[in-house]
Amino acid sequence: VQLVESGGGLVQPGGSLRLSCAASGFAVSAYPMTWVRQAPGKERELVATIDPLSARSSTHYADSVKGRLSISRDNDANRVYLQMNNLKPEDTAIYYCNARLWNGIRWGQGTQVTVSS
Q1: Is the dihedral angle over the CA atoms 110, 113, 90, 65 positive or is it negative?
Q2: Which residues contact 101 (CB under 8 A, 6 or more apart)?
Q3: If you compute the radius of gyration of the chain from its CA atoms, what whole number of angstroms results?
Q4: CA distance linking residue 84 with residue 54, whole number of Å
Q5: Which residues have CB under 8 Å from 59's CB, separation 6+?
Q6: Distance in angstroms (rounded) separating the CA atoms of residues 9 and 74
Q7: Angle at 60 between CA 58 and CA 62, to 5 degrees
Q8: In whole angstroms, what separates CA 27 from the centre of its chain?
Q9: Alpha carbon of 20 to those of 55, 74, 101: distances in Å?
Q10: Rounded CA gap, 25 and 2, in Å?
Q11: Helix (H, G, I), strand (E, B), or coil: what is residue 74?
């Protein structure tokens, strides 16, 4: 089982990024997939979750990102995405994806997002 995030980088306020989480060893469509972020000196914050197909693929968001960030899933590619629009400096953090599997929660290594002018 492996999760690999990509797509982070430096972006100006108001800009957009799309993060990708490539999974191997399991099907992302079958388990809850979550994006979590951690800013310097702060606790980890759950950003967005997409439920498995068995739960209608419902999505859930932190209040701080509603309307700006969107989680989605490509079952054929076995990837989960986080589309981030209208980024703000307070979105600066390391973004991790995780999967709640049958044997525990698995994490990727994270990707850095920096929002700055």
Answers
A1: negative
A2: 1, 26, 31
A3: 13
A4: 26
A5: 48, 49, 50, 51, 70, 71
A6: 22
A7: 175
A8: 16
A9: 22, 10, 19
A10: 7
A11: strand
Phi, psi of 53 (to 5 degrees): -55, -35
Nearest residue to 90 via CA among 43, 32, 39: 39
Identity (one letter) of the amino acid at 18? R
| 64-70, long-range: CB < 8 A, 24+ apart | 64/90, 65/91
Residue reference for tokens 């997002």: 113
Using left for φ > 0, alpha for ψ between -120 and 50, and beta otherwise, residue 33 falls in beta
Per-residue tens of pLDDT for the chain, all 117 residues:
999 999 999 999 999 999 999 999 999 999 999 999 999 999 999 999 999 999 999 999 999 999 999 999 999 999 999 999 999 999 999 999 999 999 999 999 999 999 999
Q: Residue type at 84?
A: M
